[in-house]
Amino acid sequence: MDKEKFLEQYENGERDFSGIDLRKRYFFDALLVDINLSGANLENALIEGHIGNTNLSGANLKKASLRHTYFIGTNLSYANLSGANLICADFTNSDLTGANLSGANLDATKFIGSNLTNADLTDIKIPRDPIVHYSTRPDGKLIINPSRGLDAKKLLSRYAAGERNFENLILHGVDLSGAELRDVNVSCAHLSNCNLSNATLTGDWYGVHFINCDLRGARLDCCYLKNATFLYTDMRGAKGYSDISYTSYIGVNFQDAEFSGHSESPLFYYNVILKDGFFLQGPSEYPHRPNKNIEKLL
Predict the structure, then answer these.
(1) Is the pLDDT of residue 154 over 70?
(2) Taking the C-alpha atoms of 205, 30, 60 and 104 in order, what is their torsion angle to the nearest 10 degrees?
(3) Phi, psi for residue 194 in degrees, rounded to 5
(4) Pick the CATH number of 152-284 from 2.160.20, 2.30.110, 1.10.3210, 3.40.50
(5) What is the pTM of this model?
């Protein structure tokens, strides 16, 4: 199938593309979510963007270029990724059971909360080490990264002792509900599956990734959130005023939120629930109801 027909069908609501042939197709700034591509042929395809909650089980991604692509919560079990370019790709919460990654370029690739049981990692290329934390390696053992990954107890203990620099921190599955983290530097940190409900956050949060996080009732006041990304995050009742320049919100729930801020650029929204409960489908720079005056969320 040609790329234009595929994207047209996707935009019209079709989600089952199992077994589709998309060899050598190019998808820049891709946004493909909740889609079935099981058994699809994507050999030598180029995909850069976001693929979330997608079924790619048994798909052929041999020698595909997938650099900087988010595979959040994606099923890649028994997929063929041999020789693929996975530089800086993010496989948070993804299932790679039995996947063939032989000869793939895993330069700074993220495997956080990932399952690599029985995956083939022979002859992989790693100019920079992959970022691995709380993931199951091919032999079934759990990998925990003590140098960057912290649990709630260690983080709060270091914070109480006066430490404020947590740049590039990894938090996965951590419960920080009600915590106060003021004036911290967590720039370029990775937070996934974390409970931050009713937490108070201030400081430098530049480029932070919030993935499947609970921010209900959280207060994000005077946060520097430039280039931050919120993926599948619950922000119901969140409050605060921050620098939100170049931030992105994909699959975020803003219902009853009083979160606002100033921005140097248009913000990006995709499949978000507005503060009044209205579901805004698809991409938008300004969250508003169709055929009505713009109702700014922020």
Answers:
(1) yes
(2) -40
(3) -100, 145
(4) 2.160.20
(5) 0.92
